[in-house]
Amino acid sequence: MKILVCISNVPDTTTKIKFTGDNKFLDTTGIQWVINPWDELSLTRALELKDDPKSGVKSVTVLHVGGAGSEPTIRKALAIGADDAVRVNAEPSDAYFVAGQIAEIVNREKYDIILCGIESSDYNGSEVGGMTAEFLDIPSFSSVSAIMIEGGAPVLTREIDGGKEIIATECPFVAVVQKGIAKEPRIASMRGIMSARSKQIRVFEPVQVEALTEIDAFEKPQPRAACKFVDPENPAELIDLLQNEAKVI
Amino acid sequence: MSVLVFTENWDGKFKRLSFELVSYASSLAGMLNTSVTAVTIGKAEGDELKKLGEFGADRILNITCPQLSFLDNRAYATIISEVARKENSGVILFSNNNTGKALAPRVAVRLKAGMASGVNGLPSGVEPFVVRKRAFSGNAFAHVVIKTPYKVITLAQNSFEPASRPTGAIPEEMEVSIDGSSVKASILETQKQTGRIVLTDADIVVSGGRGMRSPDNWGPLVELATLLGGATACSRPVSDEGWRPHEEHTGQTGKIIAPNLYIAVGISGATQHLAGVSASKYIVAINTDKDAPIFETAQYGIVGDAMKVLPKLVETVRNIRKH
Ligand SMILES: Cc1cc2nc3c(=O)[nH]c(=O)nc-3n(C[C@H](O)[C@H](O)[C@H](O)COP(=O)(O)OP(=O)(O)OC[C@H]3O[C@@H](n4cnc5c(N)ncnc54)[C@H](O)[C@@H]3O)c2cc1C
Predict the structure, then answer these.
(1) In terms of domains, do B220 and B277 share one?
(2) Would the N or C end of chain B have less CB density within 10 A of its end CB?
(3) Residue pLDDT, tens place only, B131-142
(4) Whether residue B211 has its Cβ less than 6 Å from ligand 1
């Protein structure tokens, strides 16, 4: 069984987000790039499954659609333990474009389980996983918080509004994963970092897929009004403000 | 060129978010000079369905499919896409909740539609079609141009006020059939949370962080939430420590919520935490540290010890509720 983990390259989650003068692009000066937090967790889960001989998982490949500039992030995934990596050499212009590229790689290389994160922390799309599955015409499961493989058969936990479902399915499928999928992201060991240097990143040119959306401009949220402080000895005043000023209780 | 809105039902019932969606669809249809078709799949009946008409649905389609007993993303997306084609729907609208996130991208590919998710307002223009969506986990908005004839949108929860616009639409029943062998999954078990308000549905949320000091200190926090008719939540370290259940973890890697009121108790206000709560209409912070970053985002604050402040708040609210 082969697992493909799709990874996105995003600014570190503590980054102060700034845009270029025309507000069209992210100002990338000084940004630290990391593996999207959910993708890091799905990679961790994929590797845990591979570590378990009963799972039947033989290999874990990471896939990234992006320019050569994101290779350090891909190397990090290899250092954490992925067996190999594919990079589709193109600007990830929108989710439809990216999903089309991922589907092409899956068609060529035949993966059994395709993992995507619930969203990337930059464009917050929640789109790529479902779109990839539709391009491939295979099942997709969203909000997946656990993946087990029991006797060769995948069993997933899917979060629903106010509960969860345990689902049995068969390969191939796309799982869009979220919190719970792995406890802590796996960290690269010294040995992992060394061996990642010799692992290959296979680079493919993109296939023809048009982007269907574009970003016209970014905008920073309006700063909120200054905080009104209430005397800790008199919290009744807070309740009064919430009732009569904010009118939310 | 109608606006099609997918209104999920929960055991046959709609929620506030369903009415938000229909109201949004109705305003959007106004901008596009067209009508609203609401679609739901399975279970919902007569009077419940009619409620969609009170918020502006001109047509209400209740689709039943005998082969479908649960949410199969591929089958649902196929059905919704077929209806969109038949209805000649230019915009197909979903909630940005679990179900919407699961279905909308599939429908977008089937219809070759450009998609924008987590949209939080009406388009700023329809020619070209530009919507504003959440980006960088709440640290920015992106104005997205959708360039295709079909457009798929998911609407952020609690970002649009439901408004009464009765149409008197009579619900129509429609039975569809799918190839049962295309459903490659089965539900082994369903676990439902009972008794408590679902966090993503709550108007009021009281949330605790590491400043609550110990899992034994949660009594007054839970009581305050209960008295206010709200839900409880927590920061990540709190759920990691097992002080509170994982379903309560809010933030970048947890739940993203947008209640009317978010009360953060003993939470420092790390960017990753704010990523999940910054769309709340009002944020209240209670913290011993006057320099805690949470006060930069909060509209109301109390600098003080949660252990002393919470019981006083509980008492005040209890007294008001009595009268
Ligand atoms: C990739 C990534 C993703 C993350 N995702 C999330 C996420 O989704 N959600 C999340 O919450 N965090 C997330 N974090 C962690 C985040 O960075 C913070 O560490 C976390 O939010 C801090 O939680 P806290 O505010 O409860 O604790 P602390 O930062 O320790 O703050 C405790 C606060 O309580 C106050 N306090 C202490 N005693 C009292 C008292 N008696 N009364 C009142 N106040 C008191 C203190 O002044 C302090 O401000 C993430 C981190 C990373 C790297």
Answers:
(1) yes
(2) C
(3) 999 999 999 999
(4) yes
